[in-house]
Every structure is written in structure tokens, then in C-alpha cells.
Amino acid sequence: MIEIKDILLLLGGELKEGTEHVNKFREFLEKEKWSTDQVRRWLDECIKESQGAHSPYNRVFQDLIVSLGKKLGFEIEYGKYVGKPGEENYDGIWKRENGDKIVLEVKTSTWPIGSVNQLGDYLVRLSKKEENKNIFGLYIIGKGDVQPLIEQILGSKYKDRIRLILYDDLMEIISLKEELEPVVGKKQAIEKVQNLLLPIESIDIGNIVKLIVEIATTKATTINEEIEETEKKEVTEGEEPWTKAELLSFLKDSTTYERIFLAALVQVDKEPATGKQVKFLMNEILKRRPSEGIDKKITGKEIAAARGGMNLRKYHFMKITRAPLKKEDIIWSSWSNAEKDKLYKIKDNYKQIVTEWVKSEKLWIKEEIG
Predict the structure, then answer these.
(1) Mean of the pLDDT values across residues 246-255?
(2) Which residues, other chains included, contact 305 with Cβ-Cβ below 8 Å and sequence gap of 6+?
(3) For residues 253 and 56, what is the distance between their CA atoms, to the nearest angstrom?
(4) Using CA atoms, how far apart are residues 158 and 197, in angstroms rounded to an integer?
(5) Would you identify the CATH topology of the domain 4-181?
(6) Where are the domains of the chain?
(7) Over pLDDT 70: what percentage of the chain?
(8) 107 with 73: CB under 8 angstroms?
(9) Phi-psi region of 340 (alpha: psi -120 to 50; beta: other; left: phi over 0)
């Protein structure tokens, strides 16, 4: 494994401002082949080996953090290792597609850190210079007690423009983005995680709640789909179709969310249905069938739970009831880049059986909603 000490050895033990070595080093860091885990190990090494303000590991840490902006969907700009009076001194900048900017202050440790007014004043000057109000500051810290810095930010006039994050938490955000991307698509994943780093309207805390719910729901979907894929692999070979009697027996044990999910799938106007369409119908069914006992709004989390639950039950049904038999999934699903949503459909050879079952369970509402 390549270590930072090996890289520094090749560079003569240090990084000098404005040299070709620095340019090559930054190009090296930006290569897509470096996994998030690899970068995390490099950052850990920098924190462990850094000794004093002039340690070469501090400069490596700074450039590593700035380069991570690419993984988060930002345009990046490297700053200076050592500030000079009268010049634009910053450690790096992350620029969003819409023009928002985050000016970075990267520190391996909370000591020594001067007044936050230094970063705040720079934000003001840069905002005036570029006529851009959406320029914010972000401290990214390696280690140490961050509470004094937090208190200093809160007590300053820049409290709405400056944020702080530990590098460990930043790496968690990057990992989250990588988990969300296969589910919601690259663009939406980037938007969600970037929103975590930018100041959010603090008066209406509903904005924060919505963001948390969106991410939690999508992550729950990812987990359930991983379970689903694992189970599919276990039953791939020799999958057999369900007989009507077997399927009806299986449907009889459905949970409430599974019942509503299946009922929605057989009543959509167009197949395959998007997750949004399925959620709408599920909520309509529950509105008209209060006897089902669910008074909360259906989200993607409930759909994921229904899908995961059906697959778990199917697996146990096969193991316990029909040990040698392997049954296929009755639902087809796939991610649509065009719709930016998951698509669902009851397979044609089972739709009539499920439709009859839904009607017998008095969950048919198609005529009621026109």
C-alpha cells in the first residue's frame, strides 16, 4: 500500500509552494482510482505523523481535504500553504454548480487557530469582489477539542456563514454520497450531501428535518435492496414459477405495508409505475381504508420495508414450506435514470392472481378515485 511517507520521500521530504512537484502531487491526489478508504488511510496517517505547524504532513492533509471536494461534486481550487499579507489567503475553495462557494480552512489540529474573524472578513471581501452573497466558510479539523472554536463561531457576526466539521465526519458524508448514488442517481446524491455542508435556513427547522428524512429513507432503501440482492443470489438457480395456490397462501400472510404495496401495484394506470406513483396510490388506499390501521404518510421507507419483507418471507417460505423449491420474485423492479426514480411492476403471469386477491381483501379503490 502506498503511504504518505513514501510520497514525501519521492518529493524530497516536503511540498514547496508553486513548484512543479506540488502540481504533480495534486494531480496524483485527484485520480479517480483512489478509493474513499484509501484517502481515509492517508488522512489518518497525516494526523498521526504531524508534528508541529511546519510539518510536511500538514500540507499533505490540506491538499487531500481540498481534493475530496471532487468526490462531493464540487469544482475545486487549491489554496496556499502559507498566507502572505495583502494576498488572498485560503487553504482551498469548493464551488457548487450553481455558483455557491465554500472557502476552506483546513487544520490538522485545533491548535493553534486564530480568530474566526480572519475567515469571516475574507468571506465578506470575496463576496463583494465577486458580487456573490453565497460564499461560506468551512473549518475542517483533524483532531482536538472543537468546542472553543464552535463557541467562537457562534459568538461572531459570521455565525450564519461559517461551519465546522471533523475530517472523520467529512469522510462519512462522502461514504453516504457513494451509498446514495446507485439509488437516487449521481446528481441527486451530490445535491443531498452538498446541502449538509452548506448553511441551512435555521428558522424553519422543517428544512433540516426534510433533509434528514430524505437521506434516511434513501439509505433504508439501499439497505433493503442489498438484502434483496443477497437473497436473489441465494435463489437464482432453478427458480420456479408459483402455482396459484402457493401464491395465495403466501399473500395470505402479508403484512399491512405489503398488502397496500401490492394493492397499489395492480391499480396503477401505467406500467411500470414510478415510486412516486406507488406512494400516491398507497396513501390513497390508506385514506379510504382506515381499517388497515395506518394513519401515517407512506414514504419510500415503507416501500423498501414491504419489498424487503416480502423477499425475506419468500425465502423462509421456500426453506420451511417447500424446501427443495426455489420461487421467482413476483415483482419486477429497476432504477430509471430518466425518471430519477425506482420502477415497479407485478409480473404479467401473476398480475391477475394478485388483482383477484386485492379485490377479495377489499383494497380495490380504482373506481373510487376515478
Answers:
(1) 90
(2) 220, 224, 257
(3) 63
(4) 16
(5) Restriction Endonuclease (3.40.91)
(6) 4-181, 213-360
(7) 82
(8) no
(9) left
